Amino acid sequence: MFVIITYDVGEKRVGKVCKKLKGYLDWTQNSVFEGEITKGSLDKCLFELDQIVNPNEDSIYLYRVDNPRNIKKHIYGQEKNHSNFFL
Amino acid sequence: MFVIITYDVGEKRVGKVCKKLKGYLDWTQNSVFEGEITKGSLDKCLFELDQIVNPNEDSIYLYRVDNPRNIKKHIYGQEKNHSNFFL
Protein backbone atom coordinates (compact mmCIF):
# COMPACT_ATOMS: atom_id res chain seq x y z
CA MET A 1 0.00 0.00 0.00
CA PHE A 2 0.95 3.67 -0.41
CA VAL A 3 0.62 5.99 2.55
CA ILE A 4 0.99 9.67 3.30
CA ILE A 5 1.53 10.64 6.92
CA THR A 6 1.23 14.27 7.98
CA TYR A 7 1.64 15.45 11.53
CA ASP A 8 1.28 18.48 13.74
CA VAL A 9 2.91 17.67 17.08
CA GLY A 10 4.33 19.54 20.04
CA GLU A 11 7.84 20.96 19.68
CA LYS A 12 9.22 18.60 22.34
CA ARG A 13 8.09 15.54 20.34
CA VAL A 14 8.44 16.61 16.69
CA GLY A 15 12.08 15.49 16.42
CA LYS A 16 11.30 12.03 17.77
CA VAL A 17 8.27 11.62 15.49
CA CYS A 18 10.31 12.67 12.49
CA LYS A 19 13.20 10.37 13.38
CA LYS A 20 10.81 7.45 13.85
CA LEU A 21 9.06 8.01 10.52
CA LYS A 22 12.41 8.26 8.72
CA GLY A 23 12.84 4.59 9.50
CA TYR A 24 9.75 3.68 7.51
CA LEU A 25 8.97 6.32 4.88
CA ASP A 26 10.40 9.14 2.79
CA TRP A 27 10.48 12.56 4.37
CA THR A 28 9.30 14.67 1.49
CA GLN A 29 8.24 17.94 3.01
CA ASN A 30 7.96 19.68 6.39
CA SER A 31 5.92 17.22 8.51
CA VAL A 32 4.98 15.11 5.47
CA PHE A 33 6.14 11.52 4.91
CA GLU A 34 5.10 9.22 2.12
CA GLY A 35 5.90 5.89 0.55
CA GLU A 36 5.00 2.28 0.03
CA ILE A 37 4.79 0.14 3.13
CA THR A 38 3.47 -3.25 4.20
CA LYS A 39 0.62 -3.55 6.69
CA GLY A 40 2.95 -5.16 9.19
CA SER A 41 5.48 -2.34 9.01
CA LEU A 42 2.73 0.28 9.15
CA ASP A 43 1.22 -1.30 12.25
CA LYS A 44 4.68 -1.38 13.89
CA CYS A 45 5.33 2.23 12.91
CA LEU A 46 1.99 3.40 14.31
CA PHE A 47 2.55 1.46 17.54
CA GLU A 48 5.94 3.13 17.98
CA LEU A 49 4.50 6.58 17.20
CA ASP A 50 1.82 5.92 19.78
CA GLN A 51 4.57 5.64 22.42
CA ILE A 52 5.86 9.12 21.47
CA VAL A 53 2.86 11.36 20.81
CA ASN A 54 0.49 13.03 23.26
CA PRO A 55 -3.00 12.30 21.88
CA ASN A 56 -4.41 15.28 23.76
CA GLU A 57 -2.16 17.75 21.95
CA ASP A 58 -0.72 16.09 18.87
CA SER A 59 -2.26 15.25 15.53
CA ILE A 60 -1.16 12.55 13.07
CA TYR A 61 -3.08 11.95 9.84
CA LEU A 62 -2.63 8.76 7.90
CA TYR A 63 -3.89 8.62 4.32
CA ARG A 64 -3.90 5.08 2.96
CA VAL A 65 -4.23 3.93 -0.66
CA ASP A 66 -4.18 0.17 -0.96
CA ASN A 67 -3.28 0.15 -4.66
CA PRO A 68 -0.43 2.61 -5.28
CA ARG A 69 -1.62 2.98 -8.88
CA ASN A 70 -4.70 4.79 -7.55
CA ILE A 71 -2.80 7.85 -6.41
CA LYS A 72 -0.90 10.35 -8.52
CA LYS A 73 1.57 12.88 -7.20
CA HIS A 74 2.39 16.20 -8.85
CA ILE A 75 5.15 18.51 -7.68
CA TYR A 76 5.03 22.25 -8.28
CA GLY A 77 8.24 24.16 -7.64
CA GLN A 78 10.97 22.48 -5.63
CA GLU A 79 11.08 18.81 -4.67
CA LYS A 80 12.23 19.17 -1.06
CA ASN A 81 13.17 15.59 -0.24
CA HIS A 82 14.46 15.85 3.32
CA SER A 83 15.36 12.18 3.52
CA ASN A 84 19.04 12.92 2.96
CA PHE A 85 19.05 15.55 5.74
CA PHE A 86 20.69 14.25 8.87
CA LEU A 87 18.39 14.81 11.86
CA MET B 1 -11.64 13.38 -7.29
CA PHE B 2 -10.04 13.59 -3.83
CA VAL B 3 -6.89 15.60 -3.40
CA ILE B 4 -4.36 16.34 -0.70
CA ILE B 5 -2.23 19.44 -1.11
CA THR B 6 0.82 19.96 1.11
CA TYR B 7 3.11 22.92 0.81
CA ASP B 8 6.36 24.32 2.07
CA VAL B 9 6.58 27.94 0.94
CA GLY B 10 8.45 31.07 1.94
CA GLU B 11 7.14 33.02 4.94
CA LYS B 12 6.16 36.01 2.76
CA ARG B 13 3.87 33.82 0.66
CA VAL B 14 2.50 31.23 3.10
CA GLY B 15 -0.46 33.36 4.18
CA LYS B 16 -1.54 34.00 0.59
CA VAL B 17 -1.20 30.31 -0.35
CA CYS B 18 -3.23 29.28 2.69
CA LYS B 19 -5.93 31.88 2.02
CA LYS B 20 -6.17 30.78 -1.63
CA LEU B 21 -6.48 27.08 -0.74
CA LYS B 22 -9.17 27.83 1.85
CA GLY B 23 -11.38 28.80 -1.06
CA TYR B 24 -11.17 25.32 -2.53
CA LEU B 25 -10.34 22.73 0.14
CA ASP B 26 -10.41 21.98 3.87
CA TRP B 27 -7.46 23.16 5.89
CA THR B 28 -6.89 20.13 8.07
CA GLN B 29 -3.40 20.56 9.43
CA ASN B 30 -0.43 22.94 9.27
CA SER B 31 0.26 23.29 5.52
CA VAL B 32 -2.10 20.43 4.63
CA PHE B 33 -5.35 20.81 2.70
CA GLU B 34 -7.63 18.06 1.50
CA GLY B 35 -11.01 17.43 -0.01
CA GLU B 36 -13.07 16.56 -3.04
CA ILE B 37 -12.76 18.87 -6.01
CA THR B 38 -13.64 18.92 -9.70
CA LYS B 39 -10.92 18.98 -12.35
CA GLY B 40 -12.04 22.46 -13.40
CA SER B 41 -11.79 23.87 -9.89
CA LEU B 42 -8.45 22.15 -9.33
CA ASP B 43 -7.02 23.61 -12.54
CA LYS B 44 -8.26 27.09 -11.50
CA CYS B 45 -6.81 26.67 -8.00
CA LEU B 46 -3.41 25.57 -9.37
CA PHE B 47 -3.36 28.46 -11.85
CA GLU B 48 -4.03 30.92 -9.02
CA LEU B 49 -1.38 29.32 -6.80
CA ASP B 50 1.06 29.60 -9.67
CA GLN B 51 0.61 33.41 -9.55
CA ILE B 52 1.62 33.41 -5.87
CA VAL B 53 4.45 30.94 -5.38
CA ASN B 54 8.12 31.26 -6.27
CA PRO B 55 8.98 27.99 -8.04
CA ASN B 56 12.65 28.44 -7.22
CA GLU B 57 12.03 28.44 -3.46
CA ASP B 58 8.59 27.03 -2.81
CA SER B 59 7.26 23.49 -2.91
CA ILE B 60 3.65 22.37 -3.45
CA TYR B 61 2.76 18.69 -3.58
CA LEU B 62 -0.55 17.56 -5.04
CA TYR B 63 -1.70 14.00 -4.36
CA ARG B 64 -4.65 13.04 -6.54
CA VAL B 65 -7.01 10.08 -6.15
CA ASP B 66 -9.60 9.97 -8.89
CA ASN B 67 -12.01 7.72 -6.98
CA PRO B 68 -12.40 9.01 -3.40
CA ARG B 69 -13.27 5.47 -2.30
CA ASN B 70 -9.66 4.46 -2.99
CA ILE B 71 -8.22 6.50 -0.15
CA LYS B 72 -8.81 6.04 3.58
CA LYS B 73 -7.93 8.59 6.24
CA HIS B 74 -7.12 7.75 9.85
CA ILE B 75 -6.65 10.37 12.53
CA TYR B 76 -4.48 9.72 15.58
CA GLY B 77 -4.80 12.26 18.39
CA GLN B 78 -6.44 15.56 17.69
CA GLU B 79 -8.38 16.47 14.55
CA LYS B 80 -6.98 19.95 13.99
CA ASN B 81 -9.41 21.28 11.38
CA HIS B 82 -8.19 24.82 10.84
CA SER B 83 -10.97 25.66 8.37
CA ASN B 84 -12.88 27.60 10.99
CA PHE B 85 -9.81 29.67 11.92
CA PHE B 86 -10.07 33.14 10.52
CA LEU B 87 -6.94 33.99 8.51
TrEMBL record, chains A, B:
InterPro entries: CRISPR_associated_Cas2, Virulence_VapD/CRISPR_Cas2. Keywords: Antiviral defense, Endonuclease, Hydrolase, Magnesium, Metal-binding, Nuclease. Mg(2+) binds at residue 8. The keyword Nuclease applies. Pfam families: CRISPR_Cas2. PANTHER family: CRISPR-ASSOCIATED ENDORIBONUCLEASE CAS2. CRISPR (clustered regularly interspaced short palindromic repeat), is an adaptive immune system that provides protection against mobile genetic elements (viruses, transposable elements and conjugative plasmids). CRISPR clusters contain sequences complementary to antecedent mobile elements and target invading nucleic acids. CRISPR clusters are transcribed and processed into CRISPR RNA (crRNA). Functions as a ssRNA-specific endoribonuclease. Involved in the integration of spacer DNA into the CRISPR cassette. This is CRISPR-associated endoribonuclease Cas2. It comes from Scopulibacillus cellulosilyticus.
